[in-house]
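Issue: ligand-bound run for zinc ion - logging full I/O for the record.

Environment: standard queue, default settings, no custom constraints.

Inputs:
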Amino acid sequence: MTRVDLIVLNGTLVTMDRDRRVIQDAGIAIERGRIVAVGSSRDIARMYTAPERIEAAGKIIIPGLINGHTHVPMTLFRGLADDLDLQDWLTKYIFPAEAKNVTEEFVRAGTRLGLAEMIRGGTTTYCDMYYFEDAIADETAKAGVRGVLGETVIDFPVADNKTNAEAMAYVERFVQKWKGHELIVPAIAPHAPYTVSEEHLKAIRAFSDRTGAPIVTHISETKREVDDSIKAKGASPVDYLARIGFLNDRVIGAHLVWPSDEEIQILKREGVGVVHNPQSNMKLASGVAPVPKMMAAGLRVGLGTDGAASNNDLSMWEEMDTTAKLHKVFSGDPKVMSAEEAFSLATIGSARALHLEKEIGSVEKGKRADLVIVNRDSLNQIPLYNVYSDLVYATKASDVETVVINGRVVMRDRRLLTLDEAAIKEGARVFRERIIKSLGSAAPPQ
Ligand SMILES: [Zn+2]
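Outputs:
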């Protein structure tokens, strides 16, 4: 018998490996944060012993879900301004509310709220872009969650940095501090090609080349962005970014709602990760990204929720369900995206979009032990015929029971083990009062 840290036994395992194996009565052995064996429960139980065991009989074991794009502290702005288009929403509500409220304390409280929601919903990795990202990294590491965390660089004064020089110095310290951490991948996050100058974008690319830090950004979110880009720069956003030498296989681009066919080829050639955010794009009426076309072209496509102010939750279950249905109705073809494909976007697809597919995204020997045990006994799941159909169209975040990240159990039988849920809720309510007061007559009707 080999002694390991943790074993999981007797579940139906949806591996999301190359062969898309689904193993009945599966067992998994975990040692020092990594999966050391996957097989039949009988074999795993015969070969391994561990001080900690998870019994998954009658349940589904899946790779941890990966939220490819969010702004986690924005949970505190959830429902603050709805039913607006992107420019009004951003310039009349979100930017002013951020200017008046975002402090390190705000960011920590919002991050803890988002982390608790994500763990409860089976999200084990998320990719973020916000301010005070060092505090976000600290909270994320303490909660035991994995993150690709990008400090925002934008060409106007923001909460944590007032100038580009300050922002670049912050990012330098931030990346040096967290580089090599087993949960945190520090990144640099230029907000968008229309809010960061060409000179600054080139400096960001040079910084990434020197440090290896991923670049998280928004690209081609609205038709207006494309029209403005053509007018101002003579090229649509992807084309422009390629021309200035910004794109490569460390770039993670959110949205990509409006790329042309030629731009899809550029994204493919440069190895850019693409994160689809269907609910946010629907809510802001930004459009429908050509995801089936991008998948057919072999792009690195994943899935994200975007910030909670434009979604308004961080559930990857809703996002998968919405993705499959949105592309069916938009194309008029119910076969354009299957449940299995939608599930792949939230797991191995997002891992590829974050350039982390060698480490996460599937349950396989050698990968990080990020996995989720899902109940299959809720009324909304019964009876069960096909596991992917069940996961994408019927399962809810509330059906997630147990969550393991990097071999550590962070939720067991619906009990959060690394976060204090009551304190988090109380903290968020305190910020709600402050935010309403800060907006004065511009506060939304209650
Ligand atoms: Zn975003």
